[in-house]
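Interim report to the steering committee. The following record documents the input for Thyroid peroxidase (389 residues).
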Amino acid sequence: MAANWQDCCLSTKATAAFKFRIKMDRIKTVQEILTYFLKHVHGIITSFEDVLDILESCRQNVLHHYLTETLSFFVMSSFSRSLFFFFNSQIITMRDYLPKIIGSESFQEFIGPYRGYDPTVNPSAANVFATAAFRFGHGTVSPILPRLNESFQEHERFCHLRMHATFFSPWRIVNEGGIEPILRGMIGSAASVASSKMLVAEEVTERLILMNSVERMDLASMNMQRGRDHGLPGYNDWRKFCGLRRVRTLKDLAEVVGDYRVAEKVLNIYKHVDNIDVWLGGLLESLLPGARTGPLFACLIGKQMKMIRDGDRFWWSAEGIFTQQQKNELLQFSLSRLICDNSDVGEVLPDSFQRGTYPCDYVSCDHIPSMNLEAWREKRLGGLERLLG
């Protein structure tokens, strides 16, 4: 950590904010979420610190050192890994996020109910998922970063920011009201919706800054070039992979895109439908009902997430990982609870992935369910007491 706040908040590579990865220093919203997850992990560990108190009564016991080290490792390592990632990457993502991204119908078709660990499933990320499909989110980046007060109205002192004004500027968090105004802006405003007329905001196609470049970068161009560098098959091949009808003519493309003029522009550039890059083609598709993706990306994301879940023998709901009581407590956790526990925001939406109107749709943090960690402590203390005899 730098010697003072100013040193650690300078927008230079050598002093990137709080030693975050450079990418996290670039994007304020990513930095905010990672900060809260880190605080949440520390909160879990703190909640289990009193478990170690039982060892004080046996300080002279020859087992004391061994038990202290073992239990400390259990608290710091097992819980910080398993609970943190189960909360974040598994329950919240699968239950609260994905159905809104690919739609409930696609979720049932491509993911469906959990039936247990399948050792024949490879859970690693497919190239097309990492390089194209899951980068659909670049089309949801808003050009404006709102900063809201406690009433979820425009902040009196700190105005909204153009996205490019937040790149590599962590000093704004320290000098301009802290994290909460930005967090309220994330809760209280909607993500952008990619459309055939505006796929990606100009803030990331005309004004994107990378730390190792003095040039303004174009995120959309980078995505398409990345797909070519990785040797991804084209848009039409992936439609065939997903059982979707291949696009053969301008009319076909216009039906998929929902805009004849846009389809015409695309074909003027690519000359043939088989030349269309998968990232661009997937982003151009009309959104499915109740989803933020079209049919192709819904398929690719859904198939990948099912493999990640079914091929993970440590999936949170797999047999033998947690007791039923512990699973019930895990299900109490939510993104809203994370925000309540780790920030000074006192009112949230019951589901932070849904947009609502203040104040009628917001509730006090006191009404957001939370986990009871006794479900874990009871099990572990019982075994420890037996060991101590």
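Residues 101 and 292 are 5 Å apart (CA to CA). The committee is asked to note this result when reviewing the revised timeline.
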